[in-house]
Amino acid sequence: MTIFTSVFLALLVTTVLVRLWLGRRHIAHMQSHRQQVPAAFAASISLEAHQKAADYSTAKTRLVMIEGVVQAILLYVLTLGGVLQWLDASWLDLLPDSTLLRGALVIVSAFAISSLVDIPLDYYKAFVVDERFGFNKMTRKMFFSDLVKHTLVGLVMGAPLLFAALWLMQGAGTWWWLYLWVLWSAFNLLMLAVYPTFIAPLFNKFQPLTDESLKARIESLLAKCGFKSQGLFVMDGSSRSSHGNAYFTGFGASKRVVFFDTLLERLDADEIEAVLAHELGHFRHHHVIKRIAMLFGISFAGLALLGWLVQQSWFFSSLGVATPSNHMALLLFLLVSPVFTFLLRPLLSRYARQNEFEADAYAATHASAHHLIVALVKLYRDNASTLTPDPLHSAFYDSHPPASIRIAKLETA
Ligand SMILES: [Zn+2]
C-alpha cells in the first residue's frame, strides 16, 4: 500500500467516524431536551411542536448518517475496489479510437453509478421521512419527472463543459488548467445569469406578486435600501414541500426577489418585510459576490493541483486505477477531493454563520428586529427545525446560527 493510499483510507474512515459521532451527539442532545420547550420559546412554541421538531430532526440526522456510510463504501468500491478501472477498460473495448468521447462516457457512467445510491435516499427522505411529518407535497410522478429534468439539464449544461475540459487537457499544453479555470468561471457566471430566467421555471411556477399593499411596502423597503430588482415573484414552493422560504436569485440586471407561497401564507406584512430586509442585508454586505470570489479562488487552487496530479502516476495507482489518463485524473479528483476537504467544513460553516449575523443586524436597522424574531420563530415552528441542536454538531455543519443564539442577538440589536 502506498503512502497516498494510506492517507486516503485514513481520511475516509475519519470522515465516516466524525459524521457518525456528530450525528449521534446531535440526536442524543435533541432527545434529552425533548421534554421541555426552551424558556425563550415557551410562549410561542407548544410542547407538541417542539417534540415534532426533535423527532423530525432525529429522523433526518439518521438519514444523513446512513448516507455518509453508504457514500464512503461506494467511494471505496469505485476506487480501490476496482470499479473505475473496470469501467475504463470496458469503454476502451467499445470505443478504442475516440479518446474524448470515451473519457466523457467513463465520467458520466461513474456519476450515474453514484446517483443510483443517492436516488433511493432522496426518495426515502421525501416519501417516508417528510411524508410522516406532513411536509411532503410531492407526488411520485413529480419526483421522477424532476429527476429526468435534472438529468437532462445537467447533461445539456455539463456535456459541453466536460468535452471542453477533456479537450483542453489533451491539447492545450502545460497551462491547460488555467484555461479551464477561466472557462469554468465564465460558465458559473453564465449559470448565475440564466438560472432564474431559464432554469428555475422548468421546476417551479413563478407568478408576479399581486398583493398591491404588500407590493407597495416591499418596494418602499427596496427603495430605502437602494436596491433595484427585476420584479417580485411568488414561487409555488408548496407544490413540493410545505417548508417556507424567501430568496434572491441572479445578479446584475437579472436579479429578482422570490417568495415561496408558503412564506406569504404564514407571515404578516411586517414579518415579510423583516425577512426581506435580512435578505437585502446579504446583498448589501456583498455575501453573494464574496461567495463567488471564494469559489473561484478554491477552483483555481484545485485546478492548479490537478494540473500537477495528472502527471503523477502514483495518484492513479494509489486510487486503484492502473492506466493514467486525463479523464481518470479529472474523475478521481472530483470523487476524492471531498474526503480531503471534509475537515475544513467547520471553517466554512462559521463563515456562513457570520454572514447570517450581519444580515440580521442589517434587518434590525432597516426593518424591525422584533418582527424578524416573530417571523423566525414561526419558520422554526412550521419547518420543524430543532431549537436545541447539539452545539458541536451545529458548529461543524450549520450555515445558520442556532435559534436561541440568533434570537438573543437580535433582541439586543
Ligand atoms: Zn440569511
Throw out a few tags for this protein:
single chain, 413 residues, mainly alpha, four-stranded mixed sheet, 16 helices, 4 strands, 72% helix, 4% strand, binds zinc ion
Tell me what the structure shows:
- Helices cover 72% and strands 4% of the residues.
- Strands 1-2-4-3 form a 4-stranded mixed beta sheet, with helices on both faces.
- The model has no long low-confidence stretch (mean pLDDT 90).
- It has 413 residues and is mostly helical.
Brief rundown of the structure:
With 413 residues, the chain is mainly alpha-helical. The chain contains 16 helices and four strands.
Helix content estimate: over 70%
Strand content: under 5%
User: What's the mean pLDDT score?
Assistant: 90
Task: Kindly name the structural category.
Answer: mainly alpha
What ligand species are in this complex? Answer: zinc ion
H/E element sequence: HHHHHHEHEEEHHHHHHHHH
Biggest beta-sheet profile: 4 strands, mixed
Distance between the termini: 57 Å
List the strand order in the largest sheet: 1-2-4-3
Low-confidence stretches: none
How many helical elements?
16
Q: How large, in whole angstroms, is the Cα Rg?
A: 23 Å
What is the approximate shape?
globular
